[in-house]
Amino acid sequence: MERLGEKYQSVEGFGWAARDSSGHLSPFVFSRRETGEEEVRVKVLYCGVCHSDLHCLKNEWHSSIYPLVPGHEIVGEVSEIGRKVSKFNIGDKIGVGCIVDSCRTCESCREDQENYCTKAVATYNGVHYDGTVNYGGYSDHIVVDERYAVKIPHTLPLASAAPLLCAGISMYSPMKYFGLAGPGKHIGIVGLGGLGHIGVRFAKAFGSKVTVVSSTAGKSKDALENFGADGFLVSTDEDQMQAAMGTMDGIIDTVSVSHSILPLVGLLKPNGKLILLGATDKPFDLHAFSLILGRKSIAGSAIGGIKETQEMINFAAEHGIKAEIETISMEYVNTAMDRLAKGDVRYRFVIDIANTLPATRP
Ligand code: NAP
Ligand code: ZN
């Protein structure tokens, strides 16, 4: 059966897709739409591997649409532009993150917070307004409205800039919004993974004090020496956790699995905020008194708007912030997913799409 909108999809695309919740990725030929008047076609150069890709591949959020081509940390080169495009030229290096469209009229859209538009269209595993399912950046090219792409400054290395499109903005935005970015603020970052390590670098560039709270004692040297954290707590060490109670203005929790947040609330000062980014589907168990005594709050945060994403990328370029990456080939992606599930990555996989995807064509 022809899917709605499929007749507009006349350009062949090639990527790697999972066909079911085994999450196993393999070569996949599909179609993409023609470049619209206000759209750009982007040749994908690099794509970061976010833990959200893994959640979706395995249908852990119970909303996966298969075949599923993941990837929302995309850096690429503009290969075609629509007639009315004014922001980009052919050859420009640009980034595409987690959303590729939104309603453009709601309050969130009008306030440059398209990420909170209830009709926002996800880069993959989302349904576009023309009725077609979106495929992400583990593919040779992508078509996007110019409003939903950002410029990558020349000074940023392209591969290690890719994770900024999701991990970077997801950490930058809550630090700014919740007033944690700046001297005199003490931020706790829980989980030193893809999001966490970039968060430490942003927090230090803002001038905040940063303590990493990790379940992996072996990450201490990286946290303190490589990423510049001021402190490191092993979350399973009760003495260390006890000694740090009541010291943090805010905590950003990036842990990708279900865990207890009560000890984290304890780390907060009065009026402190625990901000949840890690997207587990299990409910948290928390006693009201842990918040009442100390007027503490718990919030969530999802990526950031496009304007703020550009601001974040420019800030990263200005402060030399990039992700710590392991560049991999497309062929390696299933092994990379297994390693990501086990926490065996320092600190973000980035797929070298342009140099390694074409050879995998059947
Ligand atoms: P990641 O690279 O896998 O990092 C997650 C970190 O969580 C790990 O490095 C580990 O840090 C900790 N962790 C993992 N398993 C654990 C366990 N069993 N017990 C305790 N700690 C554990 O993942 P990521 O790409 O940074 O993404 C993190 C989460 O954020 C995912 O759920 C993802 O879907 C979500 N996310 C949210 C947003 C948003 O806007 N809200 C955006 C992107 C991603 P330690 O070794 O230091 O403990
Ligand atoms: Zn992501």
UniProtKB/TrEMBL annotation:
InterPro entries: ADH-like_C, ADH-like_N, ADH_Zn_CS, CAD-like, ER, GroES-like_sf, NAD(P)-bd_dom_sf. Homodimer. One of its GO terms (molecular function) is metal ion binding. Keywords: Metal-binding, Oxidoreductase, Zinc. It comes from Eruca vesicaria subsp. sativa. This is Enoyl reductase (ER) domain-containing protein. The lineage of its organism: Eukaryota, Viridiplantae, Streptophyta, Embryophyta, Tracheophyta. Its cofactor is Zn(2+). Residues 23-351 form the Enoyl reductase (ER) domain.
